[in-house]
Amino acid sequence: MTRLTTGPAVRSRVGGWPLQAVVAAVGVLFAAPGTYLAVRLTVGDGDLLGTLGSRDVLRPLINSVTLAAAVTAAATTLGVALALVVARTDLPGRSLLRVLLPLPLAMPSFVAATALIAATGRGGLLGWLDRPVGFGGAFWVLTVLTYPYVLLPVLAALSAVSGTMEEAARLLGRGPLVVLWRVVLPQLRPAMVAGGLLVFLYVLSDFGAVALLRFDTVTRVIYESRLLNRELSLTLGALLAVLALAVAWAARASPATTPVTTTRGGRPPEPVRVGRWRVPLLGAVWAVLGVALLAPVAVFVTWAVRGSTAIGLGYSGVGDDLSFLLAPARGTVVSGVGAAVATTLVVLPVAFATARRPSAAGRLVAALVTSVFALPGLVVALALASWAVASPTWAAGLYQSLPLLLLGYVLHFGAQGLGASQAAFSGVPRQLDEAAAVLGAGPWRRLVRVDLPLVLPGLLAGAGLVLLSTMKELPITLLLAPTGFRTLATSIWNAAADGFWAQVGVTSLCLLSVSAVLTWVLVLRQAPGVRGARAPAAH
Question: What domains does the chain contain, in order, with CATH numbers?
Answer without folding.
Answer: 35-262 (1.10.3720.10)
